[in-house]
Amino acid sequence: MEIDEAPQKVDIAARIVTPGTAITNDPAFMRGHGTFSEHDTIYSSVAGVVERINKLVSVRPLKQRYSGEIGDIIVGRITEVASKRWRVDVNSRQDGVLLLSSINLPGGIQRRKSESDELQMRTFFAEGDLVFAEVQSYFADGALSLHTRSIQYGKLRNGTLVTAFPQLVPRSRSHFHTLPCGVDVVLGVNGYIWVSKHVPASK
User: What's the pTM value of the predicted model, to 2 decimals?
Assistant: First the structure.
C-alpha cells in the first residue's frame, strides 16, 4: 500500500479518501475505524468518507454491510421459521429476528399470541417471504429485533426486489412512495428495495 507523504497541516473536513491518504498529523486527534497511524500521522485504511466526532477521526467505507439503528425501516427476507420467531436476512452481518409476539395477526388483530398461533407460523410468514418491518431493539449478540406491529408493515406481495448499497438509501420520514407511473416503492435503509404495481385502496 502506498502512503501519501503527510503535509504540514491536513484538513479534516468531510471528503472522499483512498487507502493510504494522510488525514491529519495533529496529535490532538485520535484514530477511529478505517484508519491507521504511522509517524504521528493518521492515514485512511479504506476508501470512504472522512468523518469527525469531536477529536475522533474515522473513515466510513463507501461499500459496507448494513449496520442497523433503532427505528430503521427495512425490507427483509425470511430465511428460517423457528420456535416463536423468524430469522430474517436484512443485508447485515447477521440475520435479524422477528418474534411471533412482534407481529400483527391477519386483519390487523392485536392480541396475545396462543399456542395455536405458534403452530400456524408458516401461514403468517414462510421461508422466502419478503417483509416490510421496523428495527425495534438489539439482542445481546447484536442481532436486530424487528416488529411489524403497524398496518403499514407486513408481507410484501406481487413485486420484485432490487438491491442497492445501504449508503445510497438515506433515512427519511417516509420510506413508502407511489410514483406517478403507477409504481409503489418501499425503500429499506438496509439497501433492499421493493418495487410493485400500485393497487388503489378499496373503498
Answer: 0.69
